[in-house]
Amino acid sequence: MYDICHPSYYHLCKLGCNDPIKTSTAFYVYIEICEVKRYWDVKYKYNEELDLIYFEVKKREHSQLEIYIPWPTKYNICLDKIEKMQQLLQNEQLTFVFKSEDSSSVFYTISAGLSKPAPPEVSKQRKEKAEKILNLESEIRRNITNLYELAKTLDSSHETSSQNCNSDLNTTESSNINSNLEIL
């Protein structure tokens, strides 16, 4: 049977992975990064502890080695598994090649320092705070023209009228800004 297969497929099957879906996904990704992307020095490897076929790849002749992990879209993946891969493969940056059954691929690079998403309550509080800040900024922008016009009318020779305008401005603007700051 292997005499009609691509030699790389035969070698991928001999690495030790017993999952035919992972093996065929790895083969298609291998062909894509070699023939379509034309990356250099593509070497396939197998990590028995992770039960994972992966590739060590150079994008150009003299670039650094990168790790590409073929992943069938029918399999789920979680952050804990990704962190374990980073630790066992001793690489902070991994590029996943998510391969779907219709043969389309998505390349997704993940770097070290992953963190789990914030709980919904924290996200809601952050969103509310951001909305309040936006509202405050829009009110300030809306009043800038009024402040500018008021500043133009001030004349240093009319100190008394200037003081009246300043006190009126201070009371009006400070009450608006204070009420918005209290919201925050």
Structure description:
- The chain is α+β, with helices and mostly antiparallel strands and 184 residues long.
- The chain contains 5 helices and 5 strands, in the order ααβββαββαα.
- The protein has helices at residues 7-13, 20-36, 79-88, 120-153, 159-183, and strands spanning 40-47, 52-58, 65-72, 93-99, 105-111.
- The protein has a 5-stranded mixed β-sheet.
- α1 runs antiparallel to α2 (20-36).
- The longest helix is centred in the last third of the chain and has 34 residues, at 120-153.
- The model has no long low-confidence stretch (mean pLDDT 80).
Beta content: 15-25%
Q: Based on Cα principal axes, name the global outline.
A: elongated
- Chain oligomer state: single chain
Order of neighbouring strands in the sheet with most strands: 1-2-3-4-5
Q: What's the SSE pattern?
A: HHEEEHEEHH
Beginning-to-end CA distance, first to last residue: 70 Å
Number of helices: 5
Mean pLDDT: 80
Structural class: alpha+beta
Radius of gyration, in angstroms, nearest whole number:
30 Å
